[in-house]
Amino acid sequence: MKLNIAVLSGDGIGPEVIEQALKVVNAIGKKYNHEINLTHALTGAVAIDATGNPYPDETHEICMQADAVLFGAIGHPRFDNDPSAKVRPEQGLLAMRKKLGLYANIRPTLVFPSLLHKSPLRRELIENADFVCIRELTGGIYFGDKGRNETRDKAWDVCEYTKPEVDRIVRLAYEYAMKRRKKLCIVDKANVLETSRLWREVAQGIEKEYPEVATEYLFVDAAAMRIIQWPEGFDVMVTENMFGDILTDEASVISGSMGLMPSASIGLHTSVFEPIHGSYPQAAGKNIANPLGTVLSAAMMFEYAFKLMDEANEIKDIVNKSLAEGVVTVDIADGGKAFSTSEVGDWLAAQIA
Ligand SMILES: NC(=O)c1ccc[n+]([C@@H]2O[C@H](COP(=O)([O-])OP(=O)(O)OC[C@H]3O[C@@H](n4cnc5c(N)ncnc54)[C@H](O)[C@@H]3O)[C@@H](O)[C@H]2O)c1
Ligand SMILES: CC(C)[C@H](C(=O)O)[C@@H](O)C(=O)O
Ligand SMILES: [Mg+2]
User: Fold this and answer.
1) Which residues form the domain of 31?
2) Which residues contact 309 (CB under 8 A, 6 or more apart)?
3) CA 30 / ligand 1 centre spacing (Å)
4) Residue 115 domain-assigned?
5) Is 266 exposed, middle or buried (0-12, 13-18, 19+ CB in 10 A)?
6) Whether residue 332 has its Cβ less than 6 Å from ligand 2
7) Do 236 and 269 fall within a single domain?
8) Quick check: CB of 258 below 6 Å from ligand 1?
9) 269 and 248 share one domain
């Protein structure tokens, strides 16, 4: 098969983790006889430096033409520490999500048997945890009107959702739950927010169409608690944009490292596959970042974008093998030998060959 992949490495550790994922993608391509065509494009701080725009039109065109996008991470401390910056790397990520219509961000919480000891949560609490957060990705407070008054001593970010936006993501979550253990938790703040009351109203209508699915409604504060108190109680969770952002970083603690968590963003145009972590600037250029979240995002790309399950499963298997054999970066080395980012990538690719 011909697989045309747009590669947006971005900033910080982005290029380092993407390089490892590409070693794996190329090895899989070779083994399974796929023609892998990679087109690299700029986004984030590097795109601002080169073009003034964090998501240039040319990058968007490349993404639109591709079969899938593999995305590293964006963000740079020089913007994080400058509240008055007019253009920011994060705007590039948001523009990409909006322009590609990526309304559903699928973030599985992965529990690896060989890493149970790395989680701050007790083994018996997490060993059976297996849930997926479906995060709405193109609406809410991220995309509403934002601004300052003339004297710049008042600021606002408006949270908005329309019925069709809620309808499509809740339906997607129900369909997802139907293929799993048929449990759906709808996370909102309907006791306070009007947008959440719209979510609940829409969800209650759709709930009737899925009598086989056990539906539960939780307020986001209670959900945050439940994630660490009883994670195995969840199967599929669906929530709005910002709640999903925060809850999935929290859930990454269960797996043992933020560097392990993959995601798939799907919607109207080309799907994007990216780890949930950021550009981790403290580690940039040091060859220490964990590449497995990006490698597992590549596995999700084979599964969701190309429907190539053998390839996806082989990637997941070799990641499990690397964890079991201790071929891991410092964040999960647990005092044992820590391999560099590139050594882990080389090892994974060599297993496939
Ligand atoms: N999707 C994205 O591109 C994305 C996501 C989150 C944050 N950001 C941006 O990244 C920059 C840094 O943000 P931050 O520090 O809040 O979040 P971050 O995810 O970059 O890092 C938070 C912490 O997670 C751990 N971590 C993250 N990635 C890791 C990896 N691959 N291996 C091992 N440990 C890892 C580290 O302990 C790190 O200190 C900011 O500019 C932010 O806007 C981008
Ligand atoms: C960098 C930021 C805009 C982004 C988000 O909040 O969506 C990030 O935290 C993520 O989770 O992908
Ligand atoms: Mg985030």
Assistant:
1) 1-102+263-353
2) 302, 303
3) 32
4) no
5) buried
6) no
7) no
8) yes
9) no
Q: Are residues 145 and 77 in the same domain?
A: no
Residues 180, 54 share a domain: no
Closest residue by Cα to atom 42, ligand 1, is 75
Query: Atom 2 (ligand 2): residue with closest C-alpha?
Result: 90
Asked whether the whole model's pTM tops 0.95, one would answer yes
Ligand 1 contact, 90 CB (< 6 A): yes
Domain co-membership, 241 together with 289: no
- From 255, 286, 305, the end of a domain falls on 255
Contacts of 229 (CB under 8 A, 6+ apart): 125
Catalytic site residue from 249, 304, 316, 321: 249
Residues 267 and 248 in one domain: no
- Of all atoms in ligand 1, which is nearest to the CA of residue 75? 41
DSSP secondary structure string for all residues of 268-305: SSS-EE--SS---GGGTTTT-S--HHHHHHHHHIIIII
Write down the ipTM of this complex. Answer: 0.99
Q: How far is CA 229 from CA 132, 182, 186, 222, 224, in A?
A: 16, 21, 18, 10, 9
When divided into structural domains, the chain yields a total of: 2
The alpha carbon of 14 and the centre of ligand 1 are apart by a number of angstroms equal to 10
Nearest CA residue ID for atom 1, ligand 2: 90
Instruction: Give domain status of residue 110, yes or no.
Output: no
Q: Which of 213, 233, 255 is the last residue of a domain?
A: 255
Tens digit of each residue's pLDDT, the chain (353 residues):
999 999 999 999 999 999 999 999 999 999 999 999 999 999 999 999 999 999 999 999 999 999 999 999 999 999 999 998 999 999 999 999 999 999 999 999 999 999 998 889 999 999 999 999 999 999 999 999 999 999 999 999 999 999 999 999 999 999 999 999 999 999 999 999 999 999 999 999 999 999 999 999 999 999 999 999 999 999 999 999 999 999 999 999 999 999 999 999 999 999 999 999 999 999 999 999 999 999 999 999 999 999 999 999 999 999 999 999 999 999 999 888 999 999 999 999 999 97
Task: Say which CATH number the domain at 283 has.
Answer: 3.40.718.10
The yes-or-no answer on residue 167 being catalytic is: no
**CB distance 224 to 250 below 8 Å:** yes
State whether the beta carbon of 277 lies less than 6 angstroms from ligand 1: yes
